[in-house]
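Need residues for this backbone.
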């Protein structure tokens, strides 16, 4: 007997997510089907709260208000910005001694989605360039992945230096080619941040 259509539709949507195959989506659904009502309700409540989050108007990190907690914190170094491809990288950077601001690109330039992604990143880069000029930012720290797309994105962003005199640095090579920051341990990221080099 075929599965009910709502279940098939949900399995399809989950299977499109990173790290999920169709079988993986089935296992995920089977897991949640067996949960008690409290666990299901807790998940639904957390999901609904997640959906109410905004993007910070200044750096594009998650925010419950117009600005995120980092951009509202005047004790942070207002002249330094760490550029990341994903908001989920920021908690890893926070485990280092870094105390400046952030800027989220919302992706990296790849061959598969190059045109659309370049357009998005170009808009973010232009916005970042205006911030650098208006706020007199002194250093950009590029914290994109050490993959071909991450390197391409880093070079794309560093062109800002042509329009605005600014120090641009890159995380130190504690990473190997192909490494993803999101899978790295805090000690490696801390070392890479502290020993970052000019770019």
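Answer:
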């Amino acid at each position: 007997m075929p599965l009910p259509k709502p279940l098939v539709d949900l399995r399809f949507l989950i299977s499109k997510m990173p790290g999920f195959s169709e079988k993986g989506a089935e296992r995920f659904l089977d897991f949640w089907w067996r949960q008690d009502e409290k666990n299901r309700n807790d998940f639904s409540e957390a999901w609904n709260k997640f959906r109410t989050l905004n993007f910070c108007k200044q750096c594009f990190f998650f925010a419950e208000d117009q600005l995120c907690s980092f951009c509202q914190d005047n004790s942070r170094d207002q002249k330094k910005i760490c550029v990341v491809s994903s908001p989920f990288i920021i908690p890893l950077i926070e485990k280092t001694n870094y105390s400046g601001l952030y800027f989220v690109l919302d992706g990296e330039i790849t061959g598969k989605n190059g045109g659309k992604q370049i357009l998005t990143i170009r808009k973010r880069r232009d916005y970042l360039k205006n911030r650098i000029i208006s706020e007199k930012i002194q250093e950009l720290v590029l914290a994109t992945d050490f993959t071909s797309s991450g390197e391409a994105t880093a070079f794309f962003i560093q062109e800002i230096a042509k329009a605005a005199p600014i120090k641009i640095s890159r995380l130190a090579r504690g990473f190997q080619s192909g490494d993803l920051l999101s899978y790295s341990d805090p000690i490696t990221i801390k070392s890479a941040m502290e020993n970052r080099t000019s770019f």
